[in-house]
């Protein structure tokens, strides 16, 4: 643009007789302003999917690989899912929307006849919520980002929304800005990126139900509730992840999704770092937006040529906390690491969900899983963070081995989910050279032998107190593939 400006000014100035130096400087300034305005117009994202989908995903997200999801709201008070028949966070709908027998019976047995869902709100006290302790736990887990529910389908907001009078965490319940408290702790205590989940629709909101009855020909709910709330959370809390949901009943044109995203990418306070998912209207999932989630617990087990995320739950049956959950409902650390390794090998991020209690605790089994994940990543993190998919995802001979690579370091990582019983790991995808070296992360150099169509890696006899456990990452250098 500078050279263009010089040529343009030179041509224009040459037409003036007796042009002084001050006039020349003025013309240069006018040209610079004009070009800056033109550049801004040309580089703005437009409110259509072709333009919005062309935005590169900020690098930090792909590098982070691991995130923590938290579903926390009024549903954390009943915290009941019918023994796995339903998810805890859907309790209100199961009770009074679907009239599920297990939910109706639960309320009949445990609460007075005229008790309403709204009566749960004063019981959502969060009196034991310690945002600094949460931040410390998340840091220990090795996560690169966290996503807190700002509002779920019940409509309760965990911040003092201007459009949710008396149905928010400051006017009712905890009488505390839960979003702001956690955002401050995460940013002051850790290097983790802070994000927010937001439900577009609300099950029983009168304005939404009226729009729905008109087949979404009107947008009263969007203009009076959902859009103002999204602008609120972005401008007030500056989340670097916006995890949209509750969109599927209406098209993106009803939600004004493209207009919001154009503002988010062009003019918002997080325009350079924010990432979003793909839930912006019926038909958008797995097609439009930032990274793809496609469906809950999405893990295709194969390479996907678009950045994606496996949003899954450590309690396998619920996103919100369930008091009736038993031990077998939870992922083991081995199962959780399997999800992580397969997800990252195939180009995805893992977003692990924990459900805090109504009083603000993260129960011990969630703490244990998160700290176990962190201890494994402390040893094996270089096989996860900053990696990209390799030419192979799953090994060709050993289904319990998955691969990643670090292009900058020119290293390939084979991550074994099971220890070989004979202490010899057979791999079919690795093509060695005379310079190839194999290193077990956290241990040291390993010997290997090339056979026809495979290599055999000699695994060490580890002491009983070795920190190498659950899954094992081998770094290869100087491969021919």
Task: Give the termini distance in whole angstroms.
Answer: 43 Å
Low-confidence stretches: 1-19
Shape: globular
Q: How big is the Rg?
A: 27 Å
Per DSSP, what share of the residues sits in E-state strands of 2 or more residues?
15-25%
Features of the shown structure:
single chain, 481 residues, alpha/beta, seven-stranded parallel β-sheet, five-stranded antiparallel β-sheet, 15 strands, 16% strand, globular
Protein model, in words:
The protein has 481 residues and is an alpha/beta fold. It is 32% helix and 16% strand. The chain has 14 helices and 15 strands. Strands 5-4-3-2-1-7-6 form a 7-stranded parallel beta sheet. It has a 5-stranded antiparallel beta sheet with strand order 8-9-15-11-12. A 3-stranded antiparallel beta sheet has the order 10-14-13, with no helix packed on it.
Protein topology:
Layout lengths: L1 H13 L6 H23 L5 H4 L6 H6 L1 E5 L20 H6 L4 H10 L20 H10 L4 E7 L26 H12 L3 E7 L6 H8 L6 H18 L3 E5 L6 H4 L1 H10 L8 E2 L31 E6 L19 H13 L2 E7 L9 H17 L20 E6 L4 E6 L7 E4 L9 E4 L3 E3 L1 E4 L2 E5 L13 E6 L4
Helix pairs in contact: 1-2, 7-8, 7-14
What's the gist of this structure?
With 481 residues, the chain is α/β, with parallel strands linked by helices. The protein has 14 helices and 15 strands. The strands form 3 sheets. It has a 7-stranded parallel beta sheet. The chain has a 5-stranded antiparallel beta sheet with strand order 8-9-15-11-12.
């Amino acid at each position: 643009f500078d050279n263009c400006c010089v040529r343009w000014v030179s041509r224009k100035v040459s037409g003036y007789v007796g042009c002084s130096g001050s006039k020349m400087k003025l013309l240069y300034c006018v040209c610079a302003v004009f070009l800056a305005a033109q550049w801004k117009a040309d580089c703005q994202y437009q409110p259509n999917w072709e333009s919005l989908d062309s935005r590169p995903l900020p690098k930090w997200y792909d590098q982070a690989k691991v995130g923590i999801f938290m579903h926390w709201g009024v549903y954390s008070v009943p915290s009941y899912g019918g023994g796995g028949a339903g998810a805890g966070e859907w309790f209100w709908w199961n009770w009074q929307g679907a009239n599920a027998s297990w939910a109706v019976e639960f309320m009949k047995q445990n609460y007075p006849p005229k008790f309403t869902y709204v009566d749960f709100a004063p019981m959502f006290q969060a009196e034991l919520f310690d945002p600094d302790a949460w931040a410390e736990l998340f840091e220990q887990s090795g996560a690169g980002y966290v996503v807190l529910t700002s509002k779920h389908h019940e409509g309760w907001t965990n911040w003092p929304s201007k459009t949710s009078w008396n149905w928010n965490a400051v006017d009712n319940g905890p009488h505390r800005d839960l979003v702001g408290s956690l955002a401050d702790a995460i940013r002051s205590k850790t290097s983790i990126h802070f994000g927010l989940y937001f439900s577009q629709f609300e099950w029983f909101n009168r304005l939404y139900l009226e729009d729905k009855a008109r087949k979404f020909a009107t947008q009263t709910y969007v203009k009076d509730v959902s859009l103002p709330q999204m602008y609120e959370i972005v401008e007030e809390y500056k989340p670097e992840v916006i995890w949209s949901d509750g969109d599927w009943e209406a098209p993106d044109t009803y939600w004004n999704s493209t207009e919001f995203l154009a503002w988010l990418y062009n003019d918002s306070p997080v325009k350079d770092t924010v990432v979003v998912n793909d839930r912006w209207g019926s038909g958008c999932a797995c097609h439009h937006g930032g990274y793809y989630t496609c469906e809950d617990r999405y893990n295709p087990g194969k390479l996907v040529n678009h950045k994606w995320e496996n949003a899954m739950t450590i309690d396998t049956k619920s996103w919100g906390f369930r008091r009736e959950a038993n031990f077998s409902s939870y992922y083991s650390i081995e199962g959780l690491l399997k999800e992580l390794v397969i997800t990252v090998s195939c180009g995805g991020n893992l977003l692990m969900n924990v459900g805090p209690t109504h009083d603000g605790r993260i129960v011990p089994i969630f703490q244990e899983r998160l700290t176990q994940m962190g201890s494994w990543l402390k040893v094996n993190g270089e096989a996860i963070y900053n990696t990209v998919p390799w030419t192979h995802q799953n090994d060709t001979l050993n289904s319990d081995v998955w691969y990643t690579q670090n292009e900058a370091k020119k290293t390939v990582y084979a991550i074994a989910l099971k220890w070989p019983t004979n202490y010899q790991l057979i791999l079919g995808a690795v093509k060695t050279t005379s310079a190839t070296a194999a290193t077990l992360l956290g241990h040291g150099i390993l010997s290997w032998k090339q056979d026809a169509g495979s290599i055999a890696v000699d695994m060490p006899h580890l002491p009983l107190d070795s920190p190498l456990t659950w899954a094992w990452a081998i770094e290869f250098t100087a491969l021919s593939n």
